[in-house]
Amino acid sequence: MYTSVVRLQNVFGFFTTVAFVVAAFIAASDFLTERAPIVRTLKTTSVQVVRGRPHYYSSKKEEYAVINFSLDADLSSLFTWNTKQVFVYVTAEWPAADHAKTNATNEAVIWDTIITSPSADHLANIGPVAMKKLRKSAGGKSIDPNRGKLSLKNQRHKYKITHPSGKLAMTDNVTLRLHYNVQPWVGLLTWDQDVDYGYWKALKNGVSKRFKLPAIKEKKPASAGAR
Amino acid sequence: MAEQLLDQVRDVAEGQIDFEGQKLVELLVNVTLALTGVVSFLVGYILQDIKLALQIGLAGTALTFILVVPPWPFYNRNPVKWLQVGGGLVPPQSLIVDEKSFR
Amino acid sequence: MLSGLANPRQAAVQLMNFGLILSTAFMMWKGISVITDSPSPIVVVLSGSMEPAFQRGDLLFLWNRNVLAETSVGEIVVYNVKGKDIPIVHRIVRKFGKGPEAKLLTKGDNNVSDDTELYASGQDYLVRNDIIGSVFAYIPFVGYVTILLSEHPWLKTVMLGLMGLVVVLQRE
């Protein structure tokens, strides 16, 4: 019997199918959009090593590297209709103690930021004033690739970095590296890549010059809140 | 009395439609939902606006529900002409016939 | 329903069909588990600590094999902490060393501090074995039903009531 309940079930069933197919197409449309992110500059502006404690009640003293940097990058091609946010992060990378034998490295994030697409602005975790400003910055557009243009001069680190051994001073061959993670509205999560895949080009010039961490600066840091 | 009332409620809740109506419903569901999907993807992709795509999709789906679920009169334009009661043979009671084809 | 009781063969067929559906779902889940090498290859986001990337109710697909490269900094992983039931979805922000012994530190994008507090007491870092998968694909919202049902148990009653109503109003 073809009753209202049966029709309701059938329509809902076909709706889920259609929704799934459309979502698959949206996810696939990512692969047809060119991505050509480039980094123009990524360099350190000040590097220090200070002594500190992991948290206030700890008696353990550790060495912390405090790295500030400048960054000029154009990630605007990552913003399409299916981009929810781009998570941009800068890591410091240095060879581990047994690097010669195992090729092992250490890597730690020193700074990150979330760039939302205008379609996801309402989800951003910011105050009402900043939210208003953010929404205004999109100017009513549904996508805003200009947000992917980063120009940071002498950017303060967000995280002081440390090592489980507590020793970091005089570490050599440290590099900074820019990474990104594109979060879609539906589909695959993608990260920066070293080689080209189809329309997606590798991130160019995303590594800084090698540098060496200095000796410990004998001054008590204002806050040892590196965590 | 209560049985009659329940029967009336059942009639309303059931929302039966005739065979021609069922055919029409099937066609309408397939066409409207598929069209909604295509339009929402194309408009969203061309205007690069995923919110608009979502709105079109949901609006089209809501429209389909409203169009198809209630037993609108135009689904009942071809009522089945049953044979007269007591006119022919009485089928044996123990016969089990597939529900759908029987009704 | 009543016809099923009158005819044992039909009842048996219905029972078999029901069993078939259940076992198919179970086998698919386990099959995906084997392919992804993850005990729980699809998870629903339960907290807002990764906002705005993931909201509560979003569906995440996990991959737990290191085919081309090791699990590294920047990946969003789901991990278990000893003594806690609920797996956590956070991003790796530090990695020291290489291989199964590498020390990993995680942090939620929306959290101010890293996860040291969330780990078991005395545990400062995760190792690869604590991780049950890295997020590789995402579908928004569809898992929200499970959150609704677990947080508002009265909804289950409402659903049962609705089903009962449908049965009452349907003619046999």
Describe this structure in words.
The complex is a heterotrimer of chains A (about 230), B (about 100) and C (about 170). Chain A has helices spanning about 5-30, 100, 130-140; strands at about 40-50, 60-75, 85-95, 105-115, 150-155, 175-185, 185-190, 190. With about 230 residues, chain A is an alpha+beta fold. Chain A folds into 2 domains: about 1-30; about 35-115 and about 145-190. In chain B, helix 2 runs antiparallel to helix 3 (about 50-70). Chain B is elongated, with a radius of gyration of 21 Å. Chain B is mainly alpha-helical and about 100 residues long. The relative contact order of chain B is 0.14. Chain C is an alpha+beta fold. Chain C has helices spanning about 1-5, 10-35, 145-150, 155-170; strands at about 40-45, 60-65, 75-80, 90-95, 105, 130-140. The chains are: A alpha+beta (about 230), B mainly alpha (about 100), C alpha+beta (about 170). The interface of A and C includes residues 84, 104 and 124 of A. Strand 4 of chain A pairs antiparallel with strand 4 (about 90-95) of chain C. Chain C: One of its GO terms (molecular function) is serine-type endopeptidase activity. Chain C: It catalyses: Cleavage of hydrophobic, N-terminal signal or leader sequences from secreted and periplasmic proteins. Chain C: Keywords: Endoplasmic reticulum, Glycoprotein, Hydrolase, Membrane, Protease, Signal-anchor, Transmembrane, Transmembrane helix.
Please supply descriptive tags for the structure shown above.
A: alpha+beta; elongated; C: 172 residues; alpha+beta; 3 domains; six-stranded antiparallel β-sheet
List the helices and strands and how they pair.
The complex is a heterotrimer of chains A (227), B (103) and C (172).
Chain A: H1 4-29, E1 38-52, E2 62-74, E3 83-95, H2 99-102, E4 105-116, H3 128-138, E5 149-155, E6 175-184, E7 187-188, E8 190-191
Chain B: H1 2-14, H2 19-47, H3 50-68, H4 99-102
Helix pairs in contact in B: 2-3
Chain C: H1 2-6, H2 8-36, E1 42-44, E2 59-63, E3 76-79, E4 88-96, E5 103-107, E6 131-139, H3 144-151, H4 154-169
